[in-house]
Fold this sequence. Notes:
Elements: E1 6-10, H1 28-31, H2 39-46, E2 55-58, H3 65-78, E3 84-87, H4 98-106, E4 109-112, H5 117-124, H6 128-139, E5 143-147, H7 149-152, E6 155-161, E7 174-177, E8 182-188, H8 197-205, E9 211-215, E10 219-224, E11 228-233, E12 237-241, E13 247-248, E14 261-262, E15 265-269, E16 274-276, E17 281-283
Parallel strand pairs: 1-5, 2-3, 2-4, 4-5, 6-8, 8-9
Antiparallel strand pairs: 1-10, 6-7, 9-12, 10-11, 11-16, 12-15, 13-14, 16-17
Amino acid sequence: MKLQGKLIIIGGAVDKGSFTETDLDKNAAKNLNFFEEGILKRVINESKHKELSRIEIITTASKIPLEIGPEYVKALGYLNAHNTDVINIERREQASDPEILDRLRSADVVMFTGGDQLRLTSILGGTPFHDILLDKYRNENFIYAGTSAGAAAASNNMIYQGSSSEALLKGEVKITSGLGLIDDVIIDTHFVQRGRIGRLFQAVVGNPKVLGIGLGEDTGLLITNGRQMEAIGSGLVILVDGREIKDTNLTQIEMGQPISISHLVTHVLSKYDTFDLDTFKMTIKSSQYV
């Protein structure tokens, strides 16, 4: 089945402008220069009706939803996307509310903010809201955009806990089920800035069929048809491919002991580079050999 929707997953700290600056409004042009090439602008350009698209910000993962939601509305407003509002779902019963479900049905884009991905999946998983979200993504010209927790929760398998410094100790990385928009990947965020490479190594060695995706901050992937990925934003995307692993001690060691892995393949993508999940082929946009 060909998926009709698009997935935009972002590593966190999306550049929304310096909204903490008191002189933002008079210096908006300076602070928002990044928007011309930035991730939020790309979300708008990829959406069904561009600046006229109906965009709903979902703040469920956040501990400060009343602060973070209006930031996105303001940022998108500076990009002339004024048909934007916030849905704050804090309890599971709200995910069955007819008014909220109607708003989701009418949305061209939903953008899930950062926070706690386990909070996001435990509140929304298996609800009518989740069912409609999946149906729209599979069958409509619709965008699921998620940053940080919203990105981590997009796949079938989801990392929800694990110390960066001890990530290659057996059992340190905790994995559960995500929202299920994309198969055969597992996603980690704030990847470069928080040194999370070990978390992804452990996630992949436990099931090498799954491609590890590590998203840097203000960096993401645009995924079309659930298979074709393009790097967007200002930083790096790290891919961890375990299909060619030759050996590991994973099943021989006790919990808490260091993991050994032989022949783990990695790729590094920057802006406009692409990767095909069917062929596992990476294409560097500005290759020195072209």
